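4.2 Preliminary Data

To establish feasibility before requesting continued support, the project team ran the inverse folding procedure on a target of 436 residues. The structure was first converted into the token representation described in Section 3, and no sequence information of any kind was made available to the design step. The complete token record follows.
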């Protein structure tokens, strides 16, 4: 893949890139209206989606940073975005143009005040993995093989302006009204700023690795503070396949179940015991080692789960509570899904919507064991997502529903469910974390 020699860092430079992308999208729509004359609506719309997805991703991958991170987050929304967008945006997980070797050395020196070869015994200037916020290089020190993550220049400083640029797109896509939307975007902005703080990531990585070390079939790298800084993070090099590569190999059901149970236990232990959870469950953050262990390699995005959110959230995971109308309604108010100012029509609509969603989505928690290879379960989730994505009634209402904590907790569960389904994991013990 061709490397890049510079990244736009100023607000004007980054805005002009998005304007260029906007012009390309305008051309795509012109082609679309022309194609509708000679092709079916479905074929013309599919061509439009593919062209727009390609142009948007091409623009974002040059910007990197939070703009590209938003694409990465959207790639997990398989039930909201058209297929073309999901496929193209999924590339942001592990297929992004890297910095050129000279820019790598320059960036490292700016961050660490030394060149890579002054710090490490050997250092490979070509990256082995480039993502949205940084890229990884191989190095050695005292006969140890290391992974060195270097943050792209200017990324931390551009978060606020990047989000301001993508905010109108998000508002339209998720039916968020301008009034009352600031706390949601502030939550995203704060999390993205945390992801650019590699000192914080190092601390979180060591903390979670230590507290989750007893979970079977789970591995973590060792981290090295002496070779790390605010924008550089050094850890053990971990061999293995990305989870997305692993699932395409011929694996036994036993191996798939072992990885699935480790992944599920990891998340349930964090959620229920630590009340702090790895909130970025996409395939690029997990490796599968040769001995069939799950390796967690990125702790940049962690979400604390406040008790006043945790309690009602998981009370609504219990079947008897969902089916108790009075209790159910009271919890919807606690979670800010229902509001005092709602009309009777809005109140009834959102009660029915969340009853339907929770009755389906919480099914794994109603059983001792669950089969995440169940195609019927996941097709029903997809159908439900499609139903409400197309709902004209929902579009008329204020989509600002729920506590700000829903953003990353729901993202965590949707991502986890998708990974479990990709693994086709079966006979997963739902409350196994209680025995750890």
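Position-by-position output of the design step:
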């Amino acid at each position: 893949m061709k490397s890049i020699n510079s990244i736009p860092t100023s607000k004007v430079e980054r805005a002009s890139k998005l304007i260029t992308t906007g012009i390309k999208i305008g051309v795509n729509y012109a082609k679309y209206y022309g194609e509708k004359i000679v092709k079916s609506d479905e074929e013309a719309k599919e061509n439009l989606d593919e062209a727009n997805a390609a142009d948007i991703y091409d623009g974002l991958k040059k910007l990197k940073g939070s703009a590209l991170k938003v694409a990465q987050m959207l790639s997990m929304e398989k039930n909201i975005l058209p297929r073309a967008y999901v496929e193209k945006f999924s590339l942001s997980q592990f297929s992004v143009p890297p910095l050129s070797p000279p820019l790598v050395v320059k960036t490292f020196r700016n961050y660490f005040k030394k060149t890579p070869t002054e710090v490490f015994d050997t250092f490979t200037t070509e990256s082995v993995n480039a993502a949205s916020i940084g890229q990884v290089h191989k190095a050695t020190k005292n006969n140890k093989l290391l992974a060195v993550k270097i943050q792209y220049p200017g990324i931390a400083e551009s978060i606020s302006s990047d989000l301001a640029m993508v905010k109108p797109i998000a508002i339209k896509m998720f039916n968020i009204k301008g009034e009352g939307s600031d706390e949601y975007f502030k939550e995203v902005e704060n999390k993205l700023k945390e992801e650019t703080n590699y000192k914080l990531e190092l601390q979180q990585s060591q903390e979670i690795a230590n507290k989750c070390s007893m979970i079977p079939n789970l591995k973590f790298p060792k981290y090295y503070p002496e070779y790390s800084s605010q924008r550089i993070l050094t850890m053990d090099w971990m061999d293995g396949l990305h989870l997305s590569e692993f699932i395409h190999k011929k694996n036994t059901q036993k191996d798939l179940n072992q990885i699935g149970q480790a992944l599920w236990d990891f998340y349930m232990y964090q959620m229920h015991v630590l009340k702090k959870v790895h909130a970025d469950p996409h395939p690029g953050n997990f490796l599968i080692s040769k001995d069939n262990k799950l390796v967690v390699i990125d702790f940049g995005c962690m979400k604390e789960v406040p008790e006043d959110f945790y309690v009602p959230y998981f009370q609504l995971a219990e079947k008897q509570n969902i089916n108790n109308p009075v209790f159910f309604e009271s919890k919807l108010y606690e979670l800010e899904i229902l509001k005092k100012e709602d009309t009777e029509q809005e109140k009834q609509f959102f009660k029915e919507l969340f009853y339907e969603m929770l009755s389906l989505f919480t099914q794994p928690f109603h059983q001792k064991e669950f089969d995440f290879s169940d195609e019927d379960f996941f097709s029903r989730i997809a159908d439900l997502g499609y139903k409400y994505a197309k709902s004209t009634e929902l579009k008329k209402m204020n989509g600002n529903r729920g506590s700000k904590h829903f953003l990353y907790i729901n993202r965590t569960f949707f991502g986890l469910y998708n990974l479990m389904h990709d693994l086709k994991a079966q006979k997963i013990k739902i409350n196994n974390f209680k025995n750890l």
